[in-house]
Every structure is written in structure tokens, then in C-alpha cells.
Write a structure and sequence with these properties.
By secondary structure, this protein is α+β, with helices and mostly antiparallel strands. It contains 7 helices and 13 strands.
Length: 317
């Protein structure tokens, strides 16, 4: 059931299907469900809705409550189609009947610029007027689970250079250490039950399989040695998640954006490209012209613009 309006390009070529639900059910997939017991390294879950009509906004509210997302961070989230091809607008209505087998994905769509780093952004609490982190702990947990899922399932375009391979192996060490701490599990047991390859993206796993036995053994010993060295540090799980996200940012490259093709009401063809990014804001370009910032001068007179979505650049958010 694709959305009928506000179609936004999201992530293309998603191969992992979640359509294991029965008929007459609408399922909302959650990357992180804090109340679900999971034996696997991730914390995914889902919400199911039976016969009735539900707006996308209602489903987002229910998902936020299940995940412990505070109202101040609720507007950062949205629903995406199962194949991650577009977003649902908040007023989209899902009709759940006996033939419905719809799966939607609850994802973080919008980001604050500089939410970590030397130019870190803050928000002010309404009660004490004190600076607080932009993302609270439940939102950080969800962002980690969503980003980790995209990373491992090949939704991020990670180059297979030697430098990026080293970064990916470092991320695998952080991930395995996090799993060990969250499970309150002995490190040796974690090494016996979880392969470091399960914490790597698909393309890198495939590449490692082509290496000879000696190379694979050397890499495995290097990962195990690094993991034992890091386990000496008294680091909590959320600090490891934050470090994981910060390291992964170095692999993502250019800021992610959503791209629109727009036209004036009197025009027959779309002649403007509008790009929306959480880090660089809103910009536009006309045909092959240089990209410029959107401002009031972009809309001459009282003419309104009609946006038509096309998927030009895949957006990994």
C-alpha cells in the first residue's frame, strides 16, 4: 500500500523482506523494541494492528510509546514502505481488512545538524532552561539500531578500501563488546557464540570469504586481541553505541539528502531540483545552474510551486 502523496525517496534496492505477517494484519517494524527479549544481537520488534482504519500519525505515536520515545523527539520519526522506497505522509490512512498484509518501517527521518562533535547542538529543557543533548537515550538507542541494521544489510555504500575495512573491523569490535556488556556475558562466551563476521556488512563478509585460510585466521586473531584489550576499559553500552555511530559517520561520506523535482503551475515540465538535507539545509538548482540556497526570492510573486518526487539520489537516513 504505497502512499498517495508526499512521496519521498528513501533507500532503494532493499532485498530483505519483512512480509511474514498473516492476512488481515498491519505490522509496524521497529528497529529497537526495549521490552522485547531477544537472543539475537539486535533488539528489533514489531507492533501489529488488526481490522480498522489507522493514520500514519497514529501508528507513529503507538510506535513511539512502545519504544519510549519522548514527545520532543517524536517529530524526528516517520513511516516508510517495506522496501524503503518512500515515506508515508502523517495523514495517510491505512485500511486494514481481511486482505491486508502490509508491513511498514518506523524510522528516524530527520536529524539535527551537529548532534555530536566539537560544534555539538543542544536543546533547552522547558522546566529548568538548561542545555540538554539533542537526542535522549531512547532515541539514541533507536538511531543505533536503525543505523546498525542499514550498515549490516548493505543499505550503506561502504567502499571496500583497506582503510574502510579497518574501520569496519573496528566497528565489529565495538559491536561485540556492546553485545557482551548488554547480555552481562563473559567475553569468552561471546567469542564462542558470535562470529565477528556477523557484525560486518554483507559485501565485506563476501570479500573475506574469498581470502585464504591464513589471512582469515590472522584477521580473526586481530579482532579477538583488540576485543580483549578494549574489554579492560570500564565503558557502558550507550557510550559504545555513540562511538559506533561516530565512527560510522566517517564511512558515510557526503551528507544524505532527499531530492525533489519541482515546477511552477504554468510550466509543463519540472525545471527545478530541490534538495533537502539535515546538515546543509534546503538548496535548489535550475537545470544545470549552480545550486543555491532557497529563499523568498525563489518564489516570485504569489505563484505557488508543486513538488513532484523523483528518486535521483538514494537517501540513507
Amino acid at each position: 500500500m504505497p502512499p498517495t502523496s508526499d512521496d519521498c525517496p528513501l533507500i532503494s534496492n532493499r532485498s530483505n523482506s519483512l512480509s511474514s505477517t498473516g492476512s488481515g494484519v498491519l505490522r509496524v517494524h521497529l528497529y529497537h523494541h526495549p521490552n522485547s527479549f531477544q537472543s539475537s544481537p539486535d533488539s528489533a520488534g514489531s507492533l501489529t494492528f488488526i481490522y480498522g482504519d489507522y493514520t500514519a500519525e497514529q501508528l507513529c505515536v503507538a510506535a513511539a510509546q512502545a519504544c519510549g520515545i519522548l514527545p520532543v523527539c517524536h517529530p524526528l520519526f516517520s513511516l516508510a514502505t517495506e522496501d524503503l522506497s518512500c515515506w508515508y505522509p502523517p495523514n495517510h490512512v491505512f485500511h486494514v481488512d481481511e486482505s491486508c498484509r502490509t508491513v511498514v518501517i518506523y524510522r528516524i527521518r530527520f536529524f539535527f545538524p551537529n548532534w555530536f562533535g566539537p560544534r555539538k547542538s543542544y536543546r533547552f529543557g522547558p522546566a529548568n532552561n538548561q542545555e540538554k543533548p539533542v537526542l535522549d537515550y531512547p532515541t539514541l538507542d533507536y538511531l543505533f539500531a536503525q543505523t546498525r541494521s542499514d550498515f549490516l544489510n548493505g543499505q550503506m555504500d561502504v567502499p571496500l578500501t583497506l582503510e574502510s575495512q579497518e574501520t569496519c573491523l573496528g566497528l565489529a569490535v565495538l559491536d561485540m563488546l556492546r553485545i557482551s556488556k548488554e547480555r552481562k556475558q563473559d567475553l569468552e562466551k561471546t567469542l564462542r557464540t558470535i562470529s565477528y563476521k556477523s557484525c560486518l556488512p554483507e559485501k565485506l563478509r563476501s570479500q573475506l570469504q574469498t581470502q585464504n585460510f591464513v589471512t582469515r585466521k590472522r584477521i580473526r586473531h586481530h579482532v579477538e586481541r583488540s576485543l580483549r584489550m578494549m574489554s579492560i576499559l570500564q565503558t557502558e553500552g550507550r557510550s559504545l553505541k555513540l562511538k559506533y555511530l561516530m565512527e560510522l559517520e566517517s564511512l558515510r561520506g557526503a551528507p544524505k539528502q532527499e531530492t525533489f523535482l519541482a515546477r511552477a503551475p504554468a510550466a509543463t515540465e519540472a525545471t527545478w531540483v530541490i534538495r533537502v538535507s539535515g546538515e546543509t539545509g534546503i538548496s535548489s538548482s535550475h537545470s544545470e545552474d549552480k545550486v543555491r540556497r532557497l529563499g523568498s526570492d525563489l518564489f516570485p510573486g504569489s505563484a505557488s510551486w508543486q513538488g513532484i518526487f523523483i528518486q535521483i539520489d538514494p537517501v540513507h537516513i
